[in-house]
Amino acid sequence: MTRIAIYPGTFDPVTRGHIDICQRALKVFDRIVIGVADSLAKQPFFNLDERFDMLETVFADTDRISVRPFSGLLIDFARECNADVIIRGLRAISDFEYEVQLAGMNRSLAPEIETVFLTAAQPFAFVSSSLVREIARLDGDVSEFLHPEILRRLTDKLQNHK
Ligand code: COA
Protein backbone atom coordinates (compact mmCIF):
# COMPACT_ATOMS: atom_id res chain seq x y z
CA MET A 1 0.00 0.00 0.00
CA THR A 2 1.32 3.44 -0.97
CA ARG A 3 1.29 5.88 1.95
CA ILE A 4 0.40 9.33 0.72
CA ALA A 5 0.65 12.37 2.99
CA ILE A 6 -0.19 15.97 2.27
CA TYR A 7 1.90 18.87 3.55
CA PRO A 8 -0.27 22.00 3.44
CA GLY A 9 0.71 25.61 3.90
CA THR A 10 0.78 29.06 2.38
CA PHE A 11 4.50 28.94 1.48
CA ASP A 12 4.83 32.69 1.02
CA PRO A 13 7.58 31.87 0.08
CA VAL A 14 8.80 28.31 0.72
CA THR A 15 11.76 28.35 3.14
CA ARG A 16 14.48 25.86 3.98
CA GLY A 17 12.40 25.05 7.07
CA HIS A 18 9.59 23.74 4.87
CA ILE A 19 12.07 21.89 2.65
CA ASP A 20 13.58 20.22 5.71
CA ILE A 21 10.14 19.00 6.86
CA CYS A 22 9.41 17.57 3.38
CA GLN A 23 12.75 15.78 3.20
CA ARG A 24 12.25 14.19 6.60
CA ALA A 25 8.66 13.25 5.76
CA LEU A 26 9.94 11.29 2.76
CA LYS A 27 11.58 8.87 5.20
CA VAL A 28 8.16 8.01 6.59
CA PHE A 29 5.80 8.26 3.61
CA ASP A 30 5.96 6.99 0.04
CA ARG A 31 4.58 10.13 -1.55
CA ILE A 32 4.14 13.69 -0.35
CA VAL A 33 1.69 16.10 -1.97
CA ILE A 34 2.50 19.68 -1.05
CA GLY A 35 -0.78 21.59 -0.90
CA VAL A 36 -0.38 25.28 -1.61
CA ALA A 37 -3.33 27.01 0.01
CA ASP A 38 -4.76 30.14 -1.58
CA SER A 39 -4.89 31.61 1.97
CA LEU A 40 -6.70 34.71 0.71
CA ALA A 41 -7.28 35.88 4.27
CA LYS A 42 -3.51 36.19 4.77
CA GLN A 43 -3.21 38.42 1.66
CA PRO A 44 -0.06 36.64 0.49
CA PHE A 45 2.83 38.65 -0.95
CA PHE A 46 3.32 36.09 -3.76
CA ASN A 47 0.19 35.05 -5.65
CA LEU A 48 -0.88 31.41 -5.76
CA ASP A 49 0.75 30.74 -9.16
CA GLU A 50 4.06 32.19 -7.97
CA ARG A 51 4.03 30.18 -4.74
CA PHE A 52 3.13 27.00 -6.62
CA ASP A 53 5.84 27.60 -9.20
CA MET A 54 8.51 28.20 -6.55
CA LEU A 55 7.70 24.87 -4.89
CA GLU A 56 7.73 23.08 -8.25
CA THR A 57 11.17 24.53 -8.92
CA VAL A 58 12.57 23.53 -5.54
CA PHE A 59 11.27 19.94 -5.79
CA ALA A 60 11.72 19.45 -9.56
CA ASP A 61 14.16 16.57 -9.01
CA THR A 62 12.27 14.87 -6.19
CA ASP A 63 9.90 12.49 -7.90
CA ARG A 64 8.11 11.35 -4.73
CA ILE A 65 6.99 14.93 -4.06
CA SER A 66 4.30 16.66 -6.08
CA VAL A 67 2.83 20.13 -5.68
CA ARG A 68 -0.84 21.10 -6.02
CA PRO A 69 -2.69 24.33 -5.31
CA PHE A 70 -5.90 24.17 -3.31
CA SER A 71 -8.69 26.32 -1.97
CA GLY A 72 -11.45 25.17 0.31
CA LEU A 73 -11.21 22.73 3.17
CA LEU A 74 -7.96 20.95 3.89
CA ILE A 75 -9.68 17.64 4.53
CA ASP A 76 -11.42 17.79 1.13
CA PHE A 77 -8.04 18.36 -0.48
CA ALA A 78 -6.57 15.41 1.47
CA ARG A 79 -9.39 13.16 0.25
CA GLU A 80 -8.89 14.33 -3.36
CA CYS A 81 -5.23 13.34 -3.06
CA ASN A 82 -6.12 9.94 -1.52
CA ALA A 83 -4.04 10.96 1.47
CA ASP A 84 -4.80 9.69 4.95
CA VAL A 85 -2.17 11.80 6.69
CA ILE A 86 -1.66 15.55 7.08
CA ILE A 87 1.90 16.56 7.94
CA ARG A 88 2.49 19.63 10.04
CA GLY A 89 5.79 21.06 11.22
CA LEU A 90 6.22 22.15 14.83
CA ARG A 91 8.83 24.82 15.51
CA ALA A 92 8.46 26.43 18.91
CA ILE A 93 6.07 25.54 21.69
CA SER A 94 3.97 28.52 20.57
CA ASP A 95 2.96 26.52 17.47
CA PHE A 96 1.50 23.80 19.66
CA GLU A 97 -1.80 25.36 20.71
CA TYR A 98 -2.87 26.36 17.20
CA GLU A 99 -1.71 23.06 15.71
CA VAL A 100 -3.60 20.98 18.27
CA GLN A 101 -6.71 23.02 17.53
CA LEU A 102 -6.30 22.56 13.77
CA ALA A 103 -5.66 18.82 14.14
CA GLY A 104 -8.66 18.46 16.45
CA MET A 105 -11.01 20.27 14.08
CA ASN A 106 -9.73 18.29 11.12
CA ARG A 107 -10.19 15.05 13.06
CA SER A 108 -13.81 15.95 13.88
CA LEU A 109 -14.47 16.64 10.20
CA ALA A 110 -12.57 13.63 8.86
CA PRO A 111 -11.80 10.97 11.49
CA GLU A 112 -10.08 8.76 8.92
CA ILE A 113 -7.33 11.36 8.37
CA GLU A 114 -4.49 11.58 10.89
CA THR A 115 -2.29 14.61 11.54
CA VAL A 116 1.39 13.79 12.03
CA PHE A 117 3.77 16.36 13.49
CA LEU A 118 7.45 16.61 12.63
CA THR A 119 9.65 18.93 14.63
CA ALA A 120 11.64 21.54 12.75
CA ALA A 121 15.40 21.08 12.60
CA GLN A 122 17.21 23.44 15.00
CA PRO A 123 18.53 25.98 12.44
CA PHE A 124 14.97 26.57 11.23
CA ALA A 125 13.15 26.53 14.56
CA PHE A 126 12.46 30.28 14.41
CA VAL A 127 12.04 30.75 10.67
CA SER A 128 8.76 31.95 9.22
CA SER A 129 7.96 33.19 5.75
CA SER A 130 6.80 36.62 6.93
CA LEU A 131 9.95 37.18 9.03
CA VAL A 132 12.13 36.19 6.09
CA ARG A 133 10.22 38.63 3.86
CA GLU A 134 10.53 41.41 6.41
CA ILE A 135 14.28 40.93 6.88
CA ALA A 136 14.81 40.81 3.12
CA ARG A 137 12.70 43.95 2.65
CA LEU A 138 15.00 45.73 5.10
CA ASP A 139 18.06 44.49 3.16
CA GLY A 140 19.04 41.83 5.71
CA ASP A 141 20.73 38.62 4.61
CA VAL A 142 18.25 35.73 4.39
CA SER A 143 20.33 33.48 2.16
CA GLU A 144 20.69 30.79 4.83
CA PHE A 145 16.91 30.40 5.01
CA LEU A 146 16.07 30.22 1.30
CA HIS A 147 16.91 28.08 -1.71
CA PRO A 148 19.01 30.30 -4.05
CA GLU A 149 16.28 30.46 -6.70
CA ILE A 150 13.68 31.50 -4.11
CA LEU A 151 16.06 34.15 -2.80
CA ARG A 152 16.39 35.48 -6.34
CA ARG A 153 12.62 35.63 -6.85
CA LEU A 154 12.06 37.32 -3.50
CA THR A 155 14.76 39.89 -4.19
CA ASP A 156 13.30 40.61 -7.65
CA LYS A 157 9.77 40.99 -6.35
CA LEU A 158 10.86 43.28 -3.53
CA GLN A 159 12.77 45.42 -6.03
CA ASN A 160 9.62 45.75 -8.14
CA HIS A 161 7.66 46.87 -5.07
CA LYS A 162 10.06 49.68 -4.15
N1 COA B 1 9.78 26.08 8.61
C1 COA B 1 9.65 27.38 8.37
N2 COA B 1 8.50 28.06 8.51
C2 COA B 1 7.43 27.36 8.87
C3 COA B 1 7.46 26.00 9.12
C4 COA B 1 8.71 25.35 8.98
N3 COA B 1 8.87 24.06 9.21
N4 COA B 1 6.25 25.58 9.47
C5 COA B 1 5.45 26.67 9.42
N5 COA B 1 6.18 27.74 9.06
C6 COA B 1 5.71 29.12 8.95
C7 COA B 1 5.00 29.42 7.67
O1 COA B 1 5.90 29.87 6.69
C8 COA B 1 4.05 30.51 8.10
O2 COA B 1 4.71 31.73 8.13
P1 COA B 1 3.90 33.09 8.02
O3 COA B 1 2.73 33.05 8.93
O4 COA B 1 4.92 34.05 8.42
O5 COA B 1 3.50 33.19 6.58
C9 COA B 1 3.71 30.17 9.54
O6 COA B 1 4.75 29.34 9.96
C10 COA B 1 2.41 29.49 9.69
O7 COA B 1 2.45 28.39 8.85
P2 COA B 1 1.24 27.41 8.73
O8 COA B 1 0.71 27.05 10.03
O9 COA B 1 1.65 26.34 7.81
O10 COA B 1 0.12 28.30 8.14
P3 COA B 1 -0.14 28.49 6.73
O11 COA B 1 -0.83 29.76 6.57
O12 COA B 1 1.12 28.32 5.95
O13 COA B 1 -1.15 27.25 6.41
C11 COA B 1 -3.25 26.07 6.38
C12 COA B 1 -2.33 27.04 7.13
C13 COA B 1 -3.28 26.38 4.92
C14 COA B 1 -2.74 24.66 6.56
C15 COA B 1 -4.66 26.21 7.02
O14 COA B 1 -5.03 27.56 6.99
C16 COA B 1 -5.71 25.41 6.29
O15 COA B 1 -5.85 24.24 6.53
N6 COA B 1 -6.47 26.05 5.39
C17 COA B 1 -7.51 25.40 4.60
C18 COA B 1 -8.90 25.77 5.10
C19 COA B 1 -9.37 24.82 6.18
O16 COA B 1 -9.48 23.64 6.02
N7 COA B 1 -9.66 25.41 7.34
C20 COA B 1 -10.14 24.68 8.47
C21 COA B 1 -9.00 24.11 9.26
S1 COA B 1 -9.60 23.27 10.67
Instruction: Identify the CATH class.
Output: Alpha Beta
What value does the average pLDDT take?
96
State the strand order across the main sheet.
3-2-1-4-5
Sequence of secondary-structure elements: EHEHEHEHEHH
Description:
With 162 residues, the chain is α/β, with parallel strands linked by helices. The chain has a single domain (4-160), classed as HUPs (Rossmann fold). Helices cover 41% and strands 19% of the residues. It has a 5-stranded parallel sheet, with helices on both faces. Strand 2 (31-37), helix 2 (48-58) and strand 3 (65-70) form a beta-alpha-beta unit. The longest helix is centred in the middle third of the chain and has 16 residues, at 94-109. The radius of gyration is 15 Å and the shape is globular. The model has no long low-confidence stretch (mean pLDDT 96). Bound molecules: coenzyme A. Coenzyme A is lined by residues 8-10, 12, 15, 17-18, 21, 37, 39, 42, 73-74, 89, 91, 102, 105-106, 120, 124, 127-130.
What key attributes describe this structure?
single chain, Rossmann fold, binds coenzyme A, 5-stranded parallel beta sheet, alpha/beta, 162 residues, 19% strand, globular
Strands, helices and their partners?
Elements: E1 4-9, H1 16-25, E2 31-37, H2 48-58, E3 65-70, H3 74-80, E4 85-90, H4 94-109, E5 114-119, H5 129-137, H6 148-160
Parallel strand pairs: 1-2, 1-4, 2-3, 4-5
The structure holds coenzyme A.
